[in-house]
Design goal:
CATH topology: Rossmann fold
CATH architecture: 3-Layer(aba) Sandwich
Order of helices and strands: HHEHEHEHHEHHHEHE
Number of helices: 10
CATH class: Alpha Beta
CATH superfamily: P-loop containing nucleotide triphosphate hydrolases
Structural class: alpha/beta
Oligomer: single chain
Helix content: 40-55%
Distance between the termini: 69 Å
Largest sheet: 6 strands, mixed
Number of domains: 1
Shape: globular
């Protein structure tokens, strides 16, 4: 019997093969950090009809996820951080809209009491951690100490440093205990934050969102940016990595946040094609994010 010959396909041509571009310039053209790049552009708008259709499909996936973690006894914790008006409330509202309230909790703690201040910093958050069969979303979390408390002088430098040193160990304990921990920082541009805060101040249905902190959020933009950068650098770990969400477009941010959540959690019947996020909108933090201008500065 003759030996069967295996045909090997020719090596793929480089993407610049038919463009007349040098390899060096071709690589440069695909660099999203390069202003002259030909890399995929960031999508900045979406029709309401398309948004509603995609939202429904993703909410169906979230129901599948909940059915799975109830059956398996999983514990899921999602942390949402970000500047004022970055879209945390709206994102959480769409995530939990069709989930069972018995197994879904949203935690948004107020300012700490005198008793809270006298105890271990993480102590007041521990009672709200998920138990078996629960999904818990923190609308802001212990990371207040790295952001607003640090910028506004609500904690000392020593307390801030202690937090930055302790939080990776604390989160590693949570993960080792079996909690599935997802951390998201919702990033908004200064221009969009100014616009949303102004709209919030005029809207009689959103007065509950207004606070004295809002008044100085834009004034202290640089201080908040520096605090964000330090937080991401020092608390992004293998056990508990940060993922960043560009939120200037609310619809795209909500959909891609949901997609990323669903893509990172195991559940039966997952629609793999549907849950792939746009990596121009949601992406994992890396030390070069700032230099590459992937975050608002």
């Amino acid at each position: 019997m003759k030996d069967r010959q295996v045909e090997h396909p020719p090596p793929p041509e480089p993407p610049h093969a038919h463009t007349g571009m040098s390899e060096k310039n071709a690589k440069r053209s695909q660099d999203p950090a390069d202003p002259s790049s030909d890399a995929p552009k960031l999508q900045t708008s979406m029709a309401r009809k398309d948004y509603k259709a995609q939202l429904r499909l993703l909410q169906v996936e979230l129901v599948k996820l909940q059915r799975h973690f109830i059956n398996c006894g999983d514990r899921i914790l999602v942390i949402l951080e970000g500047r004022d008006a970055a879209g945390k409330d709206g994102s959480i509202k769409r995530i939990v809209e069709h989930l069972s309230p018995r197994e879904t909790r949203v935690v948004a703690l107020g300012k700490p009491s005198d008793r809270d201040r006298s105890g271990w910093y993480f102590q007041r958050f521990v009672p709200y951690l998920p138990v078996a069969e629960e999904l818990v979303l923190f609308n802001r979390s212990w990371y207040n100490r790295a952001g607003v408390e640090h910028v506004m002088g609500f904690c000392t430098k020593a307390e801030h440093e202690e937090f930055m040193t302790s939080v990776p160990k604390f989160e590693e304990m949570l993960v080792n205990s079996g909690i599935k921990l997802l951390k998201y920082y919702l990033d908004i541009s200064k221009k969009e934050q100014v616009k949303r805060l102004a709209e919030r101040a005029r809207d009689p249905l959103k007065q509950w969102k207004n606070s004295p902190i809002d008044a100085v959020a834009v004034q202290r933009w640089k201080a908040y940016s520096d605090a964000r950068d330090a937080m991401l650098l020092r608390t992004h770990t293998t056990a508990a990595p940060w993922h960043l969400v560009r939120t200037d477009n609310k619809r795209l941010a909500r959909l891609n946040l949901m997609r990323d959540m669903l893509s990172r959690l195991h559940y039966a019947g997952k629609n793999l094609k549907l849950v792939q996020p746009d990596t121009q909108i949601v992406f994992e933090y890396s030390a070069d994010c700032i230099a590459a201008k992937r975050l608002a500065s």
